[in-house]
Amino acid sequence: MTSVRLRIVAPILAGLRRRLRTSEAALIALALVLGSCAGLMTMAQAGIAHMMQRVLYGIGSDDRLSAQSTIDPIRLIALPVGGIALGLFIYYARNRRRAPIDVVEANALHGGVIPMRDSLTVSAQTLVSNGAGASVGLEAAYAQMAGGVASVVGQWLRLRRNDLRILVGACAGAGVGAAFGAPLTGAFYAFEIVIGAYTPAAIAPVATAALAAAVTVRALGLPAYLIVLPTADPIVSSDYFLYAALGLICALVGIVIMQAVTVMEAMVRRSPIPDLARPFVGALLLVPIALITPQTLSAGHGALHLDLTMKVSMSFLAIVFGLKIAASVISLGFGFRGGLFFASLFIGSITGQLFAGLVNLIPGASLVNGNDAALIGMAALAVAIVGGPITMSMLVLEATHDFALTSTAITASLCASTLVRETFGFSFSTWRLHTRGETIRSARDVGWVRNLTAGRMMRRDTPTIEETASFAEFRRRFPLGSVRVVTATDETGAYAGIIRVSTAFATDHKEDEPVSGIAQLQDATLTADRDVSAIMRLFEEKEVDELAVVDRDGHLLGVVTEKYVRRRYTEEIEKAQKELFGD
């Protein structure tokens, strides 16, 4: 019976795979289905986290944890309980040789491939962290699960590398867009943060997935993170300069937060606290902060809405500003899993309100609307930390439906993005990869660069000769014009330099002298795993045409030539360009 089913299913599956590899319409249809699934997964994860908070903190079904005026101190035991649970997760995963691959890293380095175990790990740890009240958001889980499922399905259907990257980005963006009820935000999140470029080939699948996710959650009644605000005062020319200044301030705040998280993580790693106990210790530090104000708990959705719709004092905002930053830094530094996406929106909204309040204290200055400044600060600080200036500007547009205010948000976001790039160079996701030794600055596909290694491009048939051989023997074995270069080896077979045949015939050395005297580049070698970027840098530095590839013991593996390396690099660039434009 099983063999009969296989005979029926196998041709259908093969036909589906062929269709997906040759038809853009089929890929769009797949994005539609997976986008709807992303919306459902977002709803499920949001429901689980909120249910945990209801049980642990005794809040109502329609209440937000961070919007509570007070929290029963006994209930705050949920924080260390969550720390213990997360510590057990860490203990369970202690034998893993690497950190889980997130969607940005997957698209940048691995062609969109994400092991499902990694996605489940990230999602589970994020749900525990947020559900227990740690100051982290769920957006990382939304993007990870949606992108992870898309990756698994795409691998099963054997999609091309570029199509798989597009599908992963589209579904990750769909998950985020579903949470905010904002399909434009989700689409641009996919382009700017997960795919790393605006590509013609990706427009239709990304837009389809984002719309499908948003429609799904709206049809099923999930409340959006976004609060729709009425249009405020008209925007005038001077406002652009004012909000540009706010954007620069937000950039500085964002850099401070990212650096603070890194410093905290380094301090915790150097401390004697065991890995599995770190979340518990961090939770104990969060308890007194939560006692001061519950607005520091969880991501801050309820607190953001509350502070925007109610008149709160400048002093209270300043206190929440400092405490929310401290809570986020402690949460991430001590090992709670999650992201700074919504936390950056919340802190940015407070930054904008404080900015407006201070400007309004200046005698003779034009009054600044606090809500407008909050929305623009929200976008600018999110750009500084998460990246994606158009993504965050679309968030403002979908919150206000005000194109004039959105244009000022774009101005502030671009100012923030420029300052962060010039002075810091990374968004939070890529900065955390940088601290692990990676050098990527965006999700732009550089995985092919790492796959194009010296070991794959070297020639193994390069002639060799012992360095003790005489000029007479060398000239006899390698007549002029037979080969360009010969590699010399020592008595153990280890690499000892490169000898140019033309040089051996052009010198007036005696016939019985060893050829080792004209060997070059003894110290300039490559290992088989060096990528094309490193190879080209070494060629430029040494100003040579050939380089030897050796193993760890210094034995010769082969030789790479600059001409061939540049040709292969150009071919891969052209291939990437074709994929970019969908050719």
Compact overview of the structure:
With 583 residues, the chain is mainly α. The protein has helices at 2-22, 24-57, 78-92, 103-109, 116-131, 139-156, 161-180, 183-195, 200-220, 237-270, 278-292, 301-309, 314-333, 341-360, 370-385, 389-400, 403-423, 428-435, 447-451, 454-457, 471-477, 501-506, 532-542, 562-580, and strands at residues 464-466, 485-489, 495-500, 525-527, 546-550, 556-561.
Task: Give short descriptive properties of this protein.
three-stranded mixed sheet, Clc chloride channel, 583 residues, 3 domains, CBS-domain, mainly alpha
CATH architecture of the largest domain: Orthogonal Bundle
The assembly state of the depicted protein chains is single chain
Major β-sheet, in short?
3 strands, mixed
Number of strands: 6
Residue ranges: pLDDT <50 for 5 or more in a row? none
Bin the strand percentage. Answer: under 5%
What is the CATH class designation of the largest domain?
Mainly Alpha
> Could you name the CATH topology of the largest domain?
Clc chloride channel
- Tally of DSSP helical segments: 24
Number of domains: 3
**Head-to-tail CA distance between termini:** 43 Å
Helix coverage percent: 55-70%
The succession of helices and strands, N to C, reads HHHHHHHHHHHHHHHHHHHHEHEEHEHEEH
